[in-house]
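new request in #modeling-help
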Amino acid sequence: MSEQGDRASFLAGIRQRTAGPVVAGPHPRPAPRADAPGVRFTVLDGVDVDDRGALLRCFMTTAEAATVAVHPTPAATVPPELLAGIVADHGVGRAVLSAESEAQGCRGVLAALGVAVDDHDGAATAAAADLGVTSAVAAVAATGSIVVSSAAARGRTASLLPRVHLCVVPVDRLVATPAEVLRGRTHPPSNLVFITGPSRTGDIEQVMTLGVHGPTAVHVIVTAAPAPS
Amino acid sequence: MSTQPGEPVDLFVTCVVDALMPEVGVATVKVLRASGCAVDVPRGQTCCGQPAWNAGFVDEAAAVASTTLDALDANPGRTVVVPAGSCATMIRVYWPTLFELAGHPDRAARARSVGARTRELTEHLAATSSAAPVASVAGAAVACHHGCHMTRELHLEDAPLEVLRRAGLPAAAWDGERCCGFGGTFSVTLPEASVTMADQKLDSLPAGVDTIVGADPSCLLQLGSRAAARGLAVRTRHIAEVLADALEAAE
Amino acid sequence: MSDEWPLWSSTLRARTAAAVGDPVLRRNVANAVDRFAGGRVTALAGLHDADELRAAARAVRADVIDHWAEILGELADNVMAGGGHVCWAGDAAEATAYVVDVAGRIGARNVVKSKSMVTEEIDLNHALEERGCRVTETDLGEWIIQLAAEHPSHILVPAVHRDRHQIAEVFDRRAGRPDGPADPEVLTAFARGALRGRFLEADLGITGVNFAVAETGSLVLVTNEGNGRLVSAVPRVHIAVMGAERVLRTWDQLDLMLNLLARSGTGQPLSAYTSITTGPRREGEVDGPDELHLVIVDNGRSRMAGTDMAEMLNCIRCGACLNVCPVYRQTGGHAYGWVYPGPMGAVLIPLLAARGPDDARAAEASSASTLCGACMEACPVEIPLQDLLLGLRRRKAANASARDRLVWQAWAAAWRRPGPYRESNRLALRSRRLLPLVRHLPAGRRWIEGRTLPTLPTRTFTERWEAGDV
């Protein structure tokens, strides 16, 4: 792991700028603080965050606002008819599965639907697929986001290159806020991504268009929590 | 601090009003007297120094501001009323910094105490409430322009609207907060942008509005002079003038 | 690029005048900023005590900058511990040299980039192209302006100055689009198809960095299109170029900043993709770069520390100030003449683009403001932009020409004494017939153009008061 350039002089240049006597203007700087206060969201007002059902309902609201289709199911695995609907709606002929068990668990149903299924083994495979299936390490109710980890998925592009992204996540991975994913994280994976809806742009006359470089559609199937083993 | 109705107030008339819109000063005096205040105009006042301050010329701004500081300091404890939001802001918000930067901490301290008793006109009227005239001024459909300093530094958006309401002149809903484009030297440094910004305001007026009222003479000058150049059927009036009219109508 | 940046062959006034004379530009810019500004209000209403969070964010950034050297050192150590390479780039030349060097070493021919203002600052594309690389901007707006050989005019929506027809024209003429409607969806689909291949065949991906978290050596990229993720995941080598101040100490601080960033800039609770990268691909992972480089760029930033300009280092480049600025709304970004437009540009141009303390063109930018304060109100880290602008004007005044200084000195000499003040006003009114002569003074001409002054009064207020007529 290399280091180039002159760290010492770069940092010395910063260090030696001691704060001179600066006249406080009418909007003076507050006392600096290293601790960051927690953020509270109005969308969680009145939501019992310990009640999974309530958290799920909140997640469905915020995810829908971000153009994510959420399909809750009381089943522990993905119901075939749910998957069939997604495959039919989007004309899926080819799918790529990332490494999580929840994603792998879709193989049988997809194959039975006549979809060609590949394991995610690189960008080329993902690019060739219409549908990318991953799980998530968390689903965030306050923002409608799913959080995908490259450690769990063993890669990054299954949720990115295909035009449809399906995320299968058990309901016990629902959390209330981004803080629960972010704070205190000491050993992050090589990539952790908060996905809040499909790829989008307003670059052309502010008209919101989906599916610029990433998926055009995002589906989240929320299954029952796995039985304790 | 609150002023009791009937207490005398000092008027800082401001350079723009003094030279270009004296009728605003006259109206201000009339309105203050009607609210029960005796009005004094401390001799020796000139300008608050804002033009030079905004252009970055500290010493020059401080020299002029000092003169006005001395004048307004003549009656310690007395409320100073200013018919211009940007000048009231200069005194209350920027004078301490101005004098510190110019190397006069003693004047900065005096400025703080003068600032503490300085009120923009509608701020003063809204606070000393009951004496505000209540009368209908028929015919005028008004929209209220809120000067940037007054809104963002003095947080006085409500006072002008309240004062207008009491005068029987509720203001039409308008995005009155966007900058008029004057910006002091901005209007001569980037005149095309300045004029375009005035146009944006004028073009966004609700239909039927024929009068823009405001508490900042410079903003009114900017919008009024542009409206005149375009031949628009809208005029600008200072809130003091509108209130003085209401008083006359009630007489 | 068609025009060298900074656009110093023209004056601020000339560029501004040209911009306000372009109704298509003004309509497009107004639509964009009004939408974003409205979105911001709604999105921040989704947070409790948003103003307290902004104040806290200001204090947190202040703490980071107070410990800037230490935190950067920690960042570099952790990036390297995680398998990444670090380059300390004091200036643009050092930064571009490093990137070009890496590109050369890996034999890169095709480079893909996601939007990064600091790479525009250092003119990185130019340096890579000179070495024979094909560089493709992959952010849709950036690709459009790259094809059109223009500069970005808004940091979030770089092609905001172009409407759908103008964009279709660029695609038709410069990207080989087959004939088709100028419909945003159709145009976007074309871009998706055209650029997909570039991502997959690229040897090198270059991104910016929204935040770097020192405690784990993590790099955060906030985007909506997905191009940032592709650029940092597909090519074998990823270089992240970062303005040195874009650092945070902890993930806790990141949580606060992320919740303010998208809400303030675009009105979204979070952007579509908030991607946090820590090191290159790991054993067993099927994609991700083999090599990760972080280029830490100073380029004038450190000069701001410890001065009255230091709080500009708080900036998280969210764009909120652009979206509320009444001047920017009428002029768009090109008028400012450099990478950063709007209020952030008015402050950064004199500080980062100046070629010396006497660079008048760079100093001009602080005049592109009416000091209305809307930017300060919108800034999620409460940068006192108005105070900074006044401070820059003071620096400019200190370098003022003798003639400019004389004007203000004469004004002060007259108006610091009550007698001459009253006399000068009285005389001005008496010489009302000479008013038309004002046209012949430069400032007078500029005031009068487009405005019709009211009839001058006959007496000043002071005269009337002293005559007992009030």
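bot summary: The longest helix of chain B spans residues 85-101.
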